[in-house]
Amino acid sequence: MKLLIIICSNAFYINCCDNIKIFNDYMKLLDVEVDYCGVSSENDFHNYEHIIPFKYKIINSKHQISKICDFITDYKSVLDYDWYMKIRPEVVLLENINFDNLSENAVNARARVYHGPRKIKYGMSINGPGIWKNVGDCFYDKIEHDIILDDMLFIFHKNIVDMGAFDKFEPFGGSDNEWKQAKLYNDRNIPLNVIGIHFKETKYGNSSGDIHMNSE
Question: Does 76 map to a domain?
Answer without folding.
Answer: yes
